[in-house]
Design brief:
The chain has 87 residues and is mostly helical. The protein has 2 helices and no strands.
Length: 87
């Protein structure tokens, strides 16, 4: 049983920030000499991936809700235009 809704965008953003923190820690410890220009694309790329994952999850939730609402509605749709409107 899930206690809360899974948010993939937040997970991706968190992983990107952990990678940044690890890179900064390795650079500060002298284990890895990384130029500062390496961290900016990693930061922006992580945020971009997080936004894409958030948008994709939103579209999936919206489509799933519409499909569920459509399955629950078994009545024929009411027509208000065309030749079927006048009977």
């Amino acid at each position: 049983m899930l206690l809360h809704e899974f948010r993939p965008g937040r997970a991706v953003a968190g992983l990107a920030m952990l990678a940044l923190a690890g890179g900064y820690a390795a650079d500060a410890a002298g284990v890895w000499e990384a130029p500062w220009t390496f961290f900016l694309p990693l930061f922006l790329g992580g945020l971009g991936l997080a936004a894409t994952a958030t948008w994709g999850a939103y579209l999936i939730r919206r489509r799933r809700a519409a499909r569920k609402a459509s399955a629950e509605n078994t009545a024929a749709p009411a027509s208000t235009s065309g030749s079927q409107a006048i009977r």
